[in-house]
Design a protein that fits this description.
Ribosomal Protein S5, domain 2; elongated; alpha+beta; single chain; 6 helices
Length: 275
């Protein structure tokens, strides 16, 4: 009967729980789902991570390739981010070209990476104007149940934190490139960035780490990325305006959450560094 009520009247079903200061999965408004991190699980990638929050699962694989630098940044490498939301992760996505949501997620994750300044692209330069590293970061969602931006960012950060690149020498005169696959060095990173998503109902109810059902029924959503103790990105995905007190509460909670998730990532990646 409970499942039928959820299908027929999903909003009333959710409101019934919210009225009791509870959520359908048993969490209170400020409780997060458990986090699972598994790094270096894809052997064909230079670095990888399976990041899971609740049911939402994202696989990140990074492939590093040598290329000529962009004309406007001759002393910098570059990063190409792509988020894939295939039909396997949710019935809401169909086969074919990337959906609007996948394109939006790609843009958001790319902007979070850029704004966080976690990676100095000059560290990816081998020879100015001639040779740089390009990092292709593919993020594939295999189970979509809300807060997908948070999971994508977590997977990307963990993968970057375990990325080791081979030493490369380039002779400008002979244009000869020599790669030393045995000698590998980690990519220097600054403080790991963490994203946290919130959903608001009316002007008084705020929940963290919403599921897909909660996101679809919420009046507004906001994702906040925190690097160290500073916000580096905020994205509000349409909906109604969010009350100022809820925004302030979200920022405070996002900073606390960032510290906890950062420790989890550092613990998970430590055994795989410099290997």
């Amino acid at each position: 009967m409970d499942s039928q009520f959820k299908i027929i009247h999903p909003e009333k079903y959710l409101r019934h729980y919210l009225a009791q200061d509870l959520r359908p999965d048993g969490r209170d408004f400020m409780s997060f789902r458990p986090v699972s991190i598994n790094v270096s699980s894809i052997k064909q990638a230079d670095s990888s991570c399976v990041f899971k929050v609740g049911n939402t699962t994202v696989i990140c694989g990074i492939k590093a390739e040598l290329s000529v630098p962009k004309a406007l940044t001759p002393d910098c490498g570059y990063v190409v981010v792509n988020v894939d939301l295939p039909p396997i992760c949710s019935p809401k996505f169909r086969p074919g070209p990337p959906s609007e949501e996948a394109q939006c997620a790609t843009k958001i994750v790319d902007e979070i990476l850029t704004n966080s300044l976690i990676l100095d692209l000059r560290d990816l330069c081998i020879c100015k104007d001639k040779l740089v590293w390009v990092l292709y970061c593919d993020l594939v969602c295999v189970d979509y149940d809300g807060s997908v931006i948070d999971v994508c960012v977590g997977a990307l950060m963990a993968a970057l934190d375990t990325l080791n690149l081979p030493e490369v020498t380039y002779d400008a005169e002979t244009k000869l490139t020599v790669t030393h696959p045995v000698n590998r060095n980690p990519v220097p990173l600054k403080s790991i960035t963490v994203s946290t998503t919130f959903a608001a109902f009316d002007e008084r109810i705020l929940i963290v780490d919403p599921t897909e059902d909660e996101e679809s029924l919420s009046h507004s959503r906001i994702s906040i990325a925190v690097n160290a103790d500073n916000m580096c990105f905020v994205h509000k995905s349409g909906g109604s305006p969010m009350a100022e007190k809820l925004v302030t509460k979200s920022i405070t909670m996002a900073k606390k959450r960032a510290e906890a998730v950062r420790k989890l990532i550092e613990t998970a990646t430590l055994p795989f560094k410099d290997t």
